[in-house]
Amino acid sequence: MSSQTGSHKDVSEKHLPSAQDSTAVAEVDENPFADPGIPHHEPRVQDIDERAAKRSERTVAMFFIVSMLATIAFIASFVAFPVDKIFYLFPLGHISALNFSLGLSLGIALFCIGAGAVHWSRTLMSGEEHVQERHPIAASPETKAAAIEEFSQGAADSGLGRRKLIRNTMIGALALVPLSGVVLLRDLGPLPEDKLRRTMWKKGLRLINQNTGEPLRPEDITVGSLVFAKPDGLEDDSHEFMHEIAKAALMLVRLEPKDIKDKQELDWSHEGIVAYSKICTHVGCPVSLYEQQTHHVLCPCHQSTFDLTDGARVIFGPAGHPLPQLNINVNNDGELVAEGDFAEPVGPSFWERG
To answer: In which residue ranges of the chain is CATH 2.102.10.10 found?
Structure first.
């Protein structure tokens, strides 16, 4: 038992700091879990040798400069490498040149900023440890003044104002690296330009029954029926079908001309046949429910309801605009054709329309 006690005492004394006052040693002897205090501060070579400090400063600056170069390489890679460029790299195999270059350059840029900050902190900022006792959340004026003084002292210890090379290269690295995120916006696709404002419909283009694939004639549409149409030349198996039908989808209803209240709607119809965009002006769902008695069409997603006898105006639901109407007529062969494009953009109201 005495041997174990002596061994325990030896181990405790072995791990005590070399520089301790007698009070702390006595406390540890009585309680092995007592706070031994802060070890004596040992100065770093940078604290006593200005040449070593300059070397550390150049090292930190080098990290920040490499980060700037890597960010520039990131942007250059986005421009230089096409999306479909593939190359072989052992042992990874065949990989995308664009993805590899973007990942490598951005990784280096971020790593060098972190490595530079860590090296700066470990070699040039103040290395002394300070103990601050816990205090109430509501600080006294004296504590606030002490905090401001400590902050000012920390700023002075960092050498940010004195070591301009580090400051300027760090600012450059932090200013350039956000450009990586800006450049990534290119992957959102090309700018829409006027693609959202126009569709495939143009003067003389025939209306094709979307179910039969045949040109529509006035006699094909009876009073009370709902017919869906697409532009002539848009094939279901074509590459651009989904892009174009999302804007050009059309529905036709035959009304009694005397029931049509809106003058433009009557002028743009043919023998009571009116053609409206099938795309709801709320969030773009396909309008496909028709009430024969009321001549209302409903969107199944959020129950927006449009009155086809009154310019397809909204009478219920969250839609903000009437359905755009397509001006139609017949050609020399008696087939329904468009007189032009929709008068306004189809689909959700993503901007205020004049």
So the answer is: 207-338
Beta bridge partners of 298: 289, 305
Contact predicate 297/329, CB 8 Å? no
CB-based contact 210:230 (threshold 8 Å): yes
Please tell me the distance from the alpha carbon of residue 51 to that of residue 138, in angstroms, as a whole number.
45
In sequence order, the 6+-apart residues with CB closer than 8 A to the CB of 26 are none
**pLDDT tens string 95-146:** 888 999 999 999 999 999 999 999 999 999 887 777 777 656 777 888 888 8
Token look-up 């035959």 returns 254
pLDDT digits (tens, 9 = 90+) for 178-210: 888 888 877 777 776 777 788 899 999 999 999
Structure tokens given for 342: 């929709």
At the fourth CATH level, the homologous superfamily of domain 207-338 is: Rieske [2Fe-2S] iron-sulphur domain (2.102.10.10)
φ, ψ (nearest 5 deg) of residue 100: -65, -45
